[in-house]
């Protein structure tokens, strides 16, 4: 009896051990399945994030280019047409353009049809610092191109009531900002100037405290310049600059800078995070010549740019994903090959292209 009892007890303990082992094995399988599902879910979420960011960047830049224009509505379609004479009162700056829809800066070492590695740290920007306002230059990543699109905002309800050697009086106040840049035109004469006044009912081009400010003109504008005020139109100048830079957290982001008042009051907005670089090429063509894609530093005549194509490298956040990562990947961006060496984050390239309105050197 004692021996049988011991045998029965030993068998029960063995069953318990086997049962516990089976339960532990099943729990392990469940945990592995949950972990794999979580990794797969995070992987898919990050890929969806890449797609959302890439599509957003492509949409906002394309929309800006659609509305960009290098001429006034009354400008002729032929460059050799003597349609406008210009009194360019405002002082010159490299990025302050009125004859083209777009202008740009090529980042050193990122030429089209080349291969290069996306750097992990910010470098020297002294090569482009002299061409941009300091508020933009200090954010600009050295491997990012700069794309600037120009706009002329019409004010059809603000008619010119009077003109004198120092400015014009309007029948209705406009959205005037101190140091705003304006164009007044009757399609035979155009004056471009920066208004230092605070009044919204008048616009003046006398030299003031704005930057870059107005030059003193030799022959004052007066009644003989504009014989009638009936067809004089008012346009506000606006430029939007697109570039990649680093924010306060050290992340690369796509920035948009709004220029309305020269170098003063530049509004810089963070548009999308995880944008590692912006690359831009310009389609240039002349009369009877096929269009050729060129970098910004190869464009000799910006009014001859007929289209713009751009590409970005978009990345996910810093959280690692264990599935499907390959180190030292190469991403095709426009005509270039960019080496992406971050083995933690996912990355993808997105391209976009947009034809411009007919460029006219009316100004």
Overview of the structural elements:
- By secondary structure, this protein is α+β, with helices and mostly antiparallel strands.
- The chain contains 3 helices and 18 strands.
- The chain has helices at 2-67, 126-129, 134-137, and strands at residues 85-88, 102-105, 115-117, 146-154, 160-164, 167-170, 180-185, 189-195, 202-204, 233-246, 252-259, 267-273, 275-284, 292-294, 305-315, 329-333, 336-340, 347-355.
- The strands form 4 sheets. Strands 1, 2, 4, 7, 8, 10, 11 and 12 form an 8-stranded mixed β-sheet that branches.
- A hairpin with a 2-residue loop joins strand 16 and strand 17.
- The longest helix has 66 residues, at 2-67.
Brief overview:
This protein has 363 residues and is α+β, with helices and mostly antiparallel strands.
Give the topology.
Blueprint: H1 2-67, E1 85-88, E2 102-105, E3 115-117, H2 126-129, H3 134-137, E4 146-154, E5 160-164, E6 167-170, E7 180-185, E8 189-195, E9 202-204, E10 233-246, E11 252-259, E12 267-273, E13 275-284, E14 292-294, E15 305-315, E16 329-333, E17 336-340, E18 347-355
Parallel strand pairs: 1-8, 3-17
Antiparallel strand pairs: 2-4, 4-10, 5-6, 6-9, 7-8, 7-10, 10-11, 11-12, 13-14, 13-15, 15-18, 16-17
């Amino acid at each position: 009896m004692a021996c049988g009892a011991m045998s029965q007890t030993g068998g029960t303990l063995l069953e318990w051990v086997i049962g516990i082992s089976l339960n532990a094995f099943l729990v392990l399988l469940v945990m592995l399945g949950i972990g794999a599902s979580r990794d797969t879910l995070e992987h898919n979420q990050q890929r969806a994030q890449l797609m959302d960011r890439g599509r957003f960047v492509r949409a906002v830049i394309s929309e800006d280019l659609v509305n960009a224009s290098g001429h006034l509505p009354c400008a002729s379609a032929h460059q050799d047409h003597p349609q406008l004479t210009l009194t360019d009162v405002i002082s010159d700056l490299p990025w302050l353009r009125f004859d083209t829809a777009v202008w740009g800066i090529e980042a050193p070492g990122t030429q089209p049809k080349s291969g290069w590695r996306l750097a992990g740290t910010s470098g020297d920007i002294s090569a482009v610092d002299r061409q941009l306002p300091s508020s933009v230059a200090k954010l600009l990543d050295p491997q990012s191109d700069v794309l600037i699109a120009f706009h002329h905002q019409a004010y059809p309800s603000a008619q010119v009531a009077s003109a004198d050697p120092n400015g014009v009086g309007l029948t209705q106040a406009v959205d005037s900002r101190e140091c705003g840049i304006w164009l007044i035109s009757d399609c035979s004469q155009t004056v471009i100037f920066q208004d230092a006044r605070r009044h919204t009912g008048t616009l003046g081009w006398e030299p003031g405290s704005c930057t870059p400010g107005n030059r003193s003109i030799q022959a004052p504008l007066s009644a003989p310049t504009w014989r009638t005020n009936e067809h004089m139109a008012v346009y506000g100048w606006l430029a939007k600059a697109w570039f990649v830079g680093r924010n306060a957290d050290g992340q690369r982001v796509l920035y948009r800078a709004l220029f309305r008042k020269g170098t003063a009051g530049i509004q810089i907005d963070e548009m999308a995070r995880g944008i590692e670089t912006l690359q831009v090429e310009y389609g240039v063509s002349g009369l009877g010549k096929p269009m050729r894609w060129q970098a910004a530093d190869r464009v000799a005549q910006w009014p001859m740019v007929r289209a713009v194509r751009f590409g970005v490298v978009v990345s996910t956040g810093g959280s690692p994903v264990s599935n499907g990562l390959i180190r030292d990947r190469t991403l095709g961006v426009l005509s270039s090959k960019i080496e992406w060496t971050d083995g933690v984050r996912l990355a993808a390239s997105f391209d976009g292209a947009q034809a411009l309105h007919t460029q006219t050197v009316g100004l």
